[in-house]
Each structure stands twice: as structure tokens, then as C-alpha cells.
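Give me C-alpha cells for this 236-residue protein.
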Amino acid sequence: MRSHLLRNRCKTVTPRSTRPVIEAACWALGILMLGLHFGARAYGEAERQQAISAFAQARSAASSETVVARGPDSIVPRVLADHAPDQTTWSKGRIRAYDAQALEPLKSLPAAVLRIPRVQLEVPVYADAGERNLNRGAGLVAGTAAPGTDGNIAIAAHRDGYFRALEKVAVGDVLELETFARHRRYHVTGVAIVEPTDLWPLAGTDIPTVTLVTCYPFYFVGSAPQRYIVQAVAID
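Here you go.
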């Protein structure tokens, strides 16, 4: 009996007066986290739309000859070259520095725009798969072909973001990839679920291919254990 009383005395009891305060704090924290989540989503969506619009404007402004070579390590878009000052007496180093500064505003532009009309997917594709780029669109997988080339172009995005639409993609769907140089159409030839260690979807191909990569399952708490692959080959 005495030991039972001692145990009861050792229990920590939260005063009833503090419970409403703790509950209110938990609600406030939850609302704050939701606000941050939806705010980040809204900001990413705004950036997606702005990037697609800026890409379209830059593409229409450029001529069919997208770049002008100025040596092995210096190129500049023709639309900029046409408005460049007379550089005939400049040193090569100074020309490179000028070109680098002129290209700075273009570095924020996506490398391409990816569209799958049937599932209403349209996202900018950036040069790398950094977190910010995946929040506002998709990113190129390092080591794979560049957009506009004839290799295997691998593109990644988040499963709980823009690439959630991939769960509705079916074999035969048309995929479009628009770069500054060309607008190419592909048709989906296969869908697969693989382990993260399976790298065959990223291997080089003999025919122009686009490989879309996202995590799987689409609805999963935490880090999804597998990868969802959609592959498409050029129609032309």
C-alpha cells in the first residue's frame, strides 16, 4: 500500500490549466507548417509558369541559328551577338568575360519544356536536378544526353509534385520536348518500376529517347523505396 502511494506521488501530472495552452500551441504549429507547405507549392507553381513564359519569349526572339561560335570555349546567342559592341580590338579574355556577363540572365532559363498533353503535364526542364529546380519543374539527370540531341535524355522530378501525373501515363501517349533548337515528339513505349540500384533506364540508346524518372510509390510517407520509369522514343 505504501509503495503504491509513493508511485502515485512520483507521477508527473500536467495541470489542467496548461493543457489548453499546449493544445493551442500544437494547433498553431500545425497551421504554420501547412501554410509553409502550401506557400512553397504556390511559389513553385508561379516559378513554373514564369519559366515557361520566359522560355517561349526567348525562343521566339532567337533566330534559327541559336549560337555564334567565338572560339572553342566561347559561344553567345545570335540575338545577343547582333547587339554586341565592336570587339575587333578586344582581347580574347575580355570577349569571354563580356560573353559570360551577357549570358548571365539566360542561365536561369530552362533548357527545355516537357509536355504530355493527355495528362495535362507541362513543366520546364532545368540543366540539373537540384532541389529548387525540382520544386519548380524538372531537372536533367547528370550523365545522360542533353535535350535536342539523339541520345537518351533522362529527366527527373518529384513524385508528389509535377511528376505525379506520370501515374496516368500509358503506352502510346505522345510526349513533346521543346528546346531552343527544335520541337520533337515522342511516343511512350514502356513503363517500369525498378530499384534505385537499377541503372539500365539511364543507359545510352541508339535511337532518340526520353526517360522520365520519379520515386515510387506515388503515395508513400517518407522516402519512397523504388523508382517509376516512363520511356518514350522519337516519332520521327
